[in-house]
Design a protein that fits this description.
The protein is mainly α. The protein has helices spanning 3-15, 17-43, 48-57, 65-94, 102-119, 124-149, 153-172, 186-189, 213-230, 232-242, 244-249, 254-277, 293-304, 309-325, 338-350, 353-374. The longest helix has 30 residues, at 65-94. The two termini are 20 Å apart.
Length: 375
C-alpha cells in the first residue's frame, strides 16, 4: 500500500463521526482524571497517588482473585441498572427530549417491583413487568404534558421526581421491617421475586446478586439501537424530535410519538430499577429524602457514550467502575464521593466533544488543502 493510500485511509478514519466521538470521550476521561488528581493533591498531596489508583482499580483492590471476581460481579450488577437509566436518557435525547426524570422513573420502578414482591408475593417476572409499566406511566405523564400543553419536559420531570420519591416512601412503609427504616429483604420474604441467576453467579465466585439482569440490560441496549437506527418507527421518532411541525406535515403523529418516547424512556428506567432491586442487593430506605443518584448518573453515562446505545454499555460500566472505586480511598484523607466529583469533571468535559469534533474536522480540512496545494 502506498503512502498516499495509507494517508487517505487514516484521514477517512479520523473523519468518521463514531471514531471522533470515541476519541473525544477518551480525551474527556483522561483530562477528567488529571483534574481529579489535581484536586486530590490540593486536598492532601500525601495520599493523592494511592487514592487515584484505588479509584481506577476498584475490585482489583483485593489481592484475592476470588474476592476480586465477586466484587467485579457486584460492579456489573450496578452498571446494568445504570445502563438502563442511560438508555432512558439517550432514547429521549435522540427524539429531541431531555428526560431528566429518569431518576424519578427509576424510583417508581423500584417502588412498584418491591411492593408487588413484598406485599403480594408476586414472582420476579410480574414484579419486573410492574416496574416497567409503572415507570412508563410516569413517563407518559411528562410526554402528554409536553405534547398537549407544551410543558417543558425538564420542569415536569423534576416535579415528578420528588412526587415519585415521597409516594414510594409512603407506599413501601407498609412493607418495611419493624426495627429499621428499610423494606423487608426479598431473600427471606419472597424468594420467587428474585431474578434467576441461570448459572451466571458461578462465574463471579458464587455472587448471588449476579442474575439474568446483566443479559437483559445488554439485550435492551442492542434492541434500542436497532429500534432507533434500523426501523421506520425509530426514524419517525427522530424526525419528530428534529422538527415536530415537519413531522406533522409528513403525516406523522407527532403528539403520539412524543408520548410514546417518554413512555419507552420511563419503561427503560423502571426496568433498570427492577433488575437492580430484584437481585436482593439492596433494600429501600423509606425515610430517604433524596432521589437515588442512579438516574442522574444515567445522564452522565448517556453523554459519555456519545448518545449511542452501544457506547452507553461501556460508558455505564466506566462510570460505575470509578464510582465503586471511590469506596476504597483512604477515608481519613478523602471522602468516598471524590469519585463522583471526578465523574462530574468528565461529564462536564463531554460537553466539549462537539467542539473537539468541529476543531478536528477544521484541522483535517486545512491539512487536505495544503496537500492539494502542494500537488
Amino acid at each position: 500500500m502506498s503512502d498516499a493510500q495509507q494517508g487517505k485511509q487514516k484521514g477517512s478514519l479520523l473523519r468518521n463521526s463514531g471514531f471522533q466521538t470515541i476519541l473525544g470521550s477518551l480525551l474527556c476521561i483522561v483530562i477528567g482524571l488529571l483534574v481529579g488528581y489535581v484536586v486530590l493533591l490540593i486536598i492532601n498531596p500525601k495520599g493523592a497517588g494511592n487514592a487515584i489508583v484505588a479509584i481506577l482499580k476498584n475490585f482489583l483492590y483485593y489481592p484475592s482473585a476470588v474476592a476480586a471476581k465477586k466484587y467485579f460481579g457486584t460492579t456489573l450488577v450496578k452498571a446494568s441498572a445504570l445502563l438502563m437509566c442511560s438508555l432512558s436518557v439517550l432514547f429521549a435525547w435522540k427524539v429531541g427530549l431531555f428526560n431528566i426524570g429518569a431518576a424519578g422513573q427509576y424510583v417508581i420502578g423500584a417502588g412498584a417491583c418491591l411492593y408487588c414482591g413484598l406485599q403480594f408475593g408476586m414472582p420476579w417476572y410480574l414484579c419486573l413487568l410492574a416496574a416497567i409499566m409503572a415507570a412508563a406511566l410516569v413517563g407518559a405523564v411528562s410526554g402528554a404534558l409536553k405534547a398537549y400543553f407544551n410543558v417543558n419536559e425538564v420542569i415536569s420531570c423534576i416535579m415528578l421526581n420528588w412526587i415519585g420519591l415521597y409516594v414510594v416512601n409512603m407506599l413501601l412503609t407498609n412493607v418495611k421491617e419493624q426495627t429499621t427504616p428499610y423494606t423487608k429483604p426479598l431473600t427471606s420474604t419472597n424468594k420467587s421475586a428474585l431474578l434467576p441467576s441461570m448459572g451466571l453467579n458461578k462465574l463471579f465466585s458464587n455472587n448471588d446478586f449476579v442474575t439474568i439482569g446483566l443479559l437483559l440490560a445488554v439485550a435492551a441496549a442492542v434492541a434500542i439501537w436497532i429500534l432507533l437506527e434500523k426501523t421506520k418507527f425509530g426514524y419517525e421518532l427522530k424526525a419528530t424530535g428534529l422538527n415536530k411541525n415537519a413531522a406533522k406535515y409528513c403525516g406523522m403523529r407527532e403528539k403520539t410519538n412524543i408520548i410514546l418516547t417518554m413512555m419507552i424512556a420511563g419503561g427503560l428506567a423502571g426496568l433498570g430499577a427492577g433488575i437492580f432491586y430484584l437481585t436482593g442487593i439492596e433494600q429501600w430506605m423509606v425515610q430517604q429524602t433524596s432521589v437515588p443518584a442512579m438516574g442522574f448518573n444515567g445522564i452522565a453515562a448517556a453523554f459519555l457514550g456519545g448518545s449511542n446505545p452501544i457506547g452507553a454499555i461501556f460508558a455505564s460500566y466506566f462510570i460505575q467502575h470509578i464510582t465503586s472505586g471511590g469506596t476504597y480511598v483512604d477515608k481519613t484523607m478523602y471522602c468516598s464521593q471524590i469519585s463522583d466529583l471526578i465523574s462530574a469533571f468528565i461529564i462536564y468535559l463531554c460537553g466539549f466533544v462537539f467542539f473537539f469534533k468541529v476543531r478536528l474536522n477544521r484541522y483535517l480540512d486545512r491539512r487536505d488543502e495544503r496537500k492539494g496545494g502542494g500537488k
